[in-house]
Amino acid sequence: MQKDDLIRIHHMLDAAKEIQSFSKGKSRDDLNSDRMLVLSLVKDIEIIGEAASKIASGLRKHFGDIPRQDIIATRNHLIHAYFDIDLNIVWDTVIKDIPPLIKGLEKIISSKE
């Protein structure tokens, strides 16, 4: 594994943990009234997708159940369709996708460090 790949995986993990921190104690309804929350969650999802897109092909096999292509596609949608962001999808990502992503990334890191 290239050193840069491990750094990118750490960036993904840091952003995912930040998402959990920002969303702790929040609900889907908070996205309607808290612009700063929306912007922070969206930015961290973008960071996760950007880092995932830069991972070398040799390491991609270690992603196993992590849906790397879906992560990248979500990032691309957020970047290019920023006036058409569906907050339900953002919240579903936060609640359903981030916890298993953290576990998967931690597993990769522990096997490579």
Quick overview of this protein structure:
The chain has 113 residues and is mostly helical. The protein has six helices and no strands. It is globular, with a radius of gyration of 14 Å.
Written account of the structure:
- The protein is mainly α and 113 residues long.
- It has one domain (3-112).
- The chain has helices spanning 3-23, 30-33, 35-53, 57-60, 68-80, 87-112.
Output mean pLDDT. Answer: 89
The main sheet comes to: none
Low-confidence stretches: none
Count of discrete domains: 1
Gross morphology is globular
Tally the helices: 6
Number of strands: 0
N to C succession of SSEs: HHHHHH
- Please give the alpha-carbon distance between the first and last residues: 10 Å
| Helix proportion | over 70%
What is the secondary structure topology, with strand pairs?
Blueprint: H1 3-23, H2 30-33, H3 35-53, H4 57-60, H5 68-80, H6 87-112
Helix pairs in contact: 1-3, 1-6, 3-5
Q: Which key phrases capture this entry?
A:
113 residues; 77% helix
